[in-house]
Design brief:
Length: about 325
């Protein structure tokens, strides 16, 4: 070189720097591959756990025979006690549940254990570890779509029930049309309308979408909800053309148009108690069974205040200007 320096020494130094960079990238790739292999193993174990579930065989007809191996004996006892005339008829019904969260997932489990004919589940969200304070979902299901995780669990509980899962947001224009189509033709017996819709969503927009769809189809439905403070909730029975629709007089718990998505954006979240969720779910399914099997009286509106153990009831009249 003209300046008397050795260019080869500079070349070696550059090579060493590139080698260090390459080594660092290789290490990162190695650790990423390790994480990937670990995740694949976890998924394989999850699939294996599902396949190893000791699910019972399907039962063609419900029996009232009293024996330990009969999962329906205590349900069929309702006939003997004069509560229900024909409990077996529950197998003929199709119920759609919108929102498989704290209330919807438990309602789905209760109806599954009761032997409902078919459940159609709608929810576009995934299971999160933040959901573990509620009932039903388990930590190993984190990351899975709520509807698919629910179907896996519910099938193991009762293989006699037929399930249909839809993982999409019903409030978009395209998905709303798909939602209406399934409500209109989801009945597994007749290919006609479902027998009942249960709204278990956590936001005002979704409730209004369900209200619009059910009004359009003249579809009977139940609305349910739990307040952001977790100590109150309600259920409401809606018959299009007869009772007040949700838009006529929405319960105060949702009238503020505040939902969990808004709260999360602000860095906080709604409070949630599994006890309140369980109570509201129980009231919802109890009235669902009364409506489907025609026993007792279905409550038009039933509230719940956990602080006072108070259950207010009322009848909401249609708004003529709605």
């Amino acid at each position: 070189c003209l300046d008397g320096t050795d260019s080869r020494r500079h070349t070696v130094i550059d090579f060493d720097s590139q080698f260090d960079d390459l080594l660092l990238i290789t290490k990162k790739l190695y650790f990423a591959m390790e994480d990937l292999v670990k995740r694949i193993k976890e998924l394989e174990e999850m699939v294996q756990s599902y396949s190893n579930t000791n699910a019972r065989c399907k039962i063609n007809e419900m029996s009232s025979e009293v024996k330990d191996s009969n999962p329906y004996s205590r349900l069929m006892a309702l006939k003997r006690m004069g509560i229900v005339d024909n409990y077996e008829k529950i197998r003929d019904f199709t119920v759609a549940i919108v929102g498989i969260g704290g209330v919807g997932s438990v309602a789905a489990e209760m109806l599954t254990r009761c032997g409902i004919g078919k459940l159609i589940l709608f929810d576009y969200d995934k299971v999160e570890l933040a959901n573990m304070n509620r009932l039903f979902f388990q930590p190993h299901q984190a990351g899975l779509s709520k509807v698919n995780a629910a179907v896996h669990t519910l099938k193991a509980i009762n293989p006699d029930v037929e399930f249909e899962a839809h993982c999409y947001n019903i409030t978009t224009v395209e998905n709303f049309d798909r939602f209406i189509e399934r409500l209109q033709h989801g009945n597994f017996k007749t290919n006609g309308p479902v027998d009942l819709v249960l709204s278990c969503v956590d936001n005002f927009e979704a409730r209004m979408s369900i209200n619009t769809a059910c009004n359009e189809l003249k579809q009977i439905w139940f609305e349910s909800g739990v307040a952001e403070n977790a100590i109150s909730g309600h259920i409401q029975f809606l018959v299009p053309g007869t009772t007040a629709c949700f838009a006529c007089a929405p319960p105060l718990v949702v009238a503020s148009n505040i939902d969990e998505r808004t709260l999360k954006k602000d860095g906080v979240c709604a409070a949630s108690l599994p006890t309140t969720m369980g109570i509201v779910s129980g009231l919802l399914v109890q009235n669902t069974l009364k409506y489907l099997l025609k026993f007792g009286k279905v409550t038009p509106y039933l509230g719940y205040n956990a602080l006072l153990d108070y259950f207010p009831t009322m009848t909401l009249k249609p708004n003529p200007q709605c």
